[in-house]
Amino acid sequence: MSGRKHIQVKNNGIFYTPEHVAALLAAQAITKRDISILDPACGEGSLLTAAMEECKRYRGKQEPYLVGCDRFKQRNLDRHIKFIHLDFFTFHTDEQFDLILTNPPYIQSARIDSTIRNRYYERYARPLGLSSNLDLWVYFLIKCTAHLKKGGAIAAVLPWSFLEAEYAQKIRKRLAENFAKIQVLVLQGAHFKDTVKRVLLVWLKEYGAGAQSIKLGYADKCNSKPYFHDLSVKIWNSENAMAGLIPETSDIIRRLQEAGFRPFEEYANVSIGVVTGANKYFILTREEAEEAGFSQSSILPVLTSVEDLSLVVTGESPNKNLLQFQRMTSKRRKYVFEGLNLGFNERVHCQRREKVRGAWYDVDPGPVPHAFFTYRVSKIPYLLLNPDGYQCTNALHKVVFNGASETERKWIQLSLLSLFGQLCLEMGGRHYGNGIIKVEPKVLKRALVYACRTRLSKRTYENILQALCEGNKNKVCFEATRLVAREAIIDDAVIKEALDSLNEIRALRGAARLSMSY
Fold first, then answer.
1. Which residues of 249-276 are buried (b: 16+ CB within 10 A; e: fewer)?
2. 343 burial class (0-12, 13-18, 19+ CB within 10 angstroms)?
3. CA atoms of 398 and 293, how far apart (whole Å)
4. What proportions of the chain, in percent to the nearest 5, are helix, strand and coil?
5. CATH number, domain at 58?
6. Which helix (H) or strand (E) holds 83?
7. Using N-to-C axis directions, what is the helix angle for 248-258 and 419-428, rounded to 10°?
8. Which are the contacts of 83, defined by CB distance < 8 A and separation ≥ 6?
């Protein structure tokens, strides 16, 4: 691929479909009947070529009607493909097909030109009650349905957000109302060149009828046999359909509830950390703050990363402080003018703050959290208590307990570190590339935790924290599991089931397996 073409591909969210992925997508979509096929963003034509090869198995010399549409000129397409050099969103809906194969561009909402985004929203999203914050693949999928014949099908390569994003919930619901058969295959591992994005293969069949069959499965490789589970419409329409991928988890959750586990939100409130809009300006070292005219009483110690949190646990200070402007002095006024000259007041969050609080620089930190939660990690998300009165930015979640005792808080902390807590978090967390999981506040609120007033050994508790800071997450998880299981009277069979289910879900996001030995 030339340098210029590589830039074009990267900037437009284009990742050409590998042959093995195209072959699997087509194999599950092609039927024996006469068929017309469209690829609305055909690129180099790999999906249509795979479809043509698949058709030969059923149709002999009779060729399908293949149409490839793309806004970029394509010069090396197979001669059997009718190419239309056109932006798909200007393609007339009078053209309808039996099957649409698509690997739409993965362009995030913020990267779509605002004028174009507003036009797409008014035309495709607003009539369906969807938000305006949609990635480009969503608009592609909506428009594809307008080009389907009754009884037709769509086979698509979609991002994981299709199962996990908040806005995708309404999209899945609409699909269940319009397609009789739905299959989603989670592909483990990265399959596309030049990106770590992980994908789903989605087959939507028999357009024009409500869902009669929904299946969700996964495969290690495209040539391995996929494992599909039947999924209820209720779970499909829920916020996170990934929760239905491992059916055994529902029984584990039931047994945890019977053992006394309760949703985290019964004990605490969860929110994102302070959003300054300009950390470089609002967060300084003590020495820098003093030079700018901020005394000890006008700064708040603050954590801006997981690394800062680890320092605090080991007794060190990150020496980062959030500026407070309640009482203006000449030095502080000068610092405000410096911020104006640097354009910090034009930042989105600063402008919003000015509308609400009357001053762009007046950051409200909110209450001091009792604990912090590391919500975007590659290994194990965890909760750490806050004995020293730190604030935190939105690099961490803030946790404020509702009256739980110190002992109960420690048990809650351990139960989140255990296999049981990790399973709850993994079930609701969003998966990203490179094995990253992100746990939104609402997912943490719903996670089941165990709280009791049995006194914990100080040495045992500190050893767990020490191992956590040293990065020995496997040891931490199983020490916490041992303690919680013994206290809640959870037998070994449940522990093994939780471990197996957790490792299945972790594998789906590309994370390493947890082992009973460490």
1. beebbebbeebebeebbebbbbeebbeb
2. exposed
3. 28
4. 45, 20, 35
5. 3.40.50.150
6. strand 81-85
7. 130
8. 42, 67, 68, 69, 70, 74, 77
Q: Are 427 and 249 in contact (CB under 8 A)?
A: yes
Last residue of a domain, one of 337, 365, 393: 365
Q: Print pLDDT tens along the chain (518 aa).
A: 433 344 344 444 455 678 888 999 998 898 766 689 999 999 989 999 999 988 887 756 667 899 999 998 887 888 889 999 999 999 988 889 999 999 999 898 889 998 999 999 999 999 999 988 899 999 999 999 999 999 999 999 998 889 877 889 999 999 999 999 999 998 865 544 444 467 899 999 999 999 999 998 877 666 566 778 888 898 899 877 776 777 778 889 999 999 999 999 999 999 999 999 999 999 999 999 999 999 999 999 999 999 999 898 888 899 999 999 988 999 999 999 999 999 999 999 999 999 999 999 999 999 999 999 999 998 999 999 998 999 999 999 999 999 899 999 999 999 999 999 999 999 888 877 678 899 999 999 999 999 999 999 999 999 999 999 888 989 999 999 999 999 999 999 999 999 999 998 888 777 888 887 64
Q: What is the end-to-end Cα distance of the chain in Å, rounded?
A: 45
Q: What is the DSSP string of 476-498?
A: HHHHHHHHHHHHHT--HHHHHHH
Q: Is 15 exposed, middle or buried (0-12, 13-18, 19+ CB in 10 A)?
A: buried
Please say which residue of 226, 245, 264 terminates a domain: 245
Domain region containing 447: 246-273+369-518
Q: What is the CA radius of gyration of the chain?
A: 26
pTM for this predicted structure: 0.77
Q: Are residues 358 and 419 in the same domain?
A: no
Torsion of CA 73, 74, 79, 80, to 10 degrees: -80
154 shares a domain with 60: yes
